[in-house]
Amino acid sequence: MMMDELAEPPSDGMLGGLQKATQRYLDKTTIWVRSRWSAFVVLLVVYAVRVYILQGFFIVTYGLGIYLLNLLIGFLSPAVDPDLEGPGLPTTDREEFRPFDRKLPEFKFWMSAFRAVLSAFTMTFFSAFDLPVFWPILFAYFLVLVFLTLKDRVRHMLKHRYVPISMGKQTYGELTKTKASGGGGEKDSK
Fold it and tell me: For residue 58, is pLDDT > 60?
């Protein structure tokens, strides 16, 4: 046997170790939803301030906006489209409850959005990405895309009666509360 066959290339070993360490830290962040999204918002604000100060990189910002809009649509869409594969969501109260299954899970949405903003932020350090454009036209076009896309998504939600966002655990008020019957420790109030 030759030593070359047994030895792992140093670049693969270092890269594999870095990937494992990164994945370990990412796995630890899955429970910290608010912290992750707060870090994303901070990074997005830092990016916006940098673009504002530099007064450039509008094409990069436009591309970032389109990509984030695409991620948002995937996040708001069901994994199984009822238009294509029949009703996958309950349409009446008597049907079995099925939780909303997203096309793009929240963690993947956050991870992709964070990487995109980080990439766009990195691009602002290279003048090759600062292409001269008239930014109000890009901004107006972006707003039209957002309006038309989200209008279509809301129409789809209303048609198939689903809400992709849930805030906290659903409670049913007094219906689920039961009163414990006391053993012998109750006194009559006469």
Answer: yes
What pLDDT digit, counting tens, does each position of 151-188 carry? 988 888 788 777 666 666 556 566 555 665 555 555 55
In whole angstroms, what is the distance from residue 129 CA to residue 56 CA?
Answer: 9
Round to whole Å and give the CA distance between 56 and 130: 6
Amino acid of residue 86? G
Instruction: Give this prediction's pTM.
Output: 0.70
Q: How far apart are CA 40 and CA 139, in angstroms?
A: 22
Whether the CB-CB separation of 26 and 36 falls below 8 Å is answered with no
Q: Tell me the C-alpha distance between 72 and 68, whole Å.
A: 6
- Tokens, residue 166: 């849930």
Crossing angle (nearest 10°) for helices 58-76 and 106-123:
180
Of 152, 15, 3, 142, nearest in space to 66 by CA: 142
* Sign, CA torsion 138/139/144/147: positive
Q: Which residues contact 72 (CB under 8 A, 6 or more apart)?
A: 109
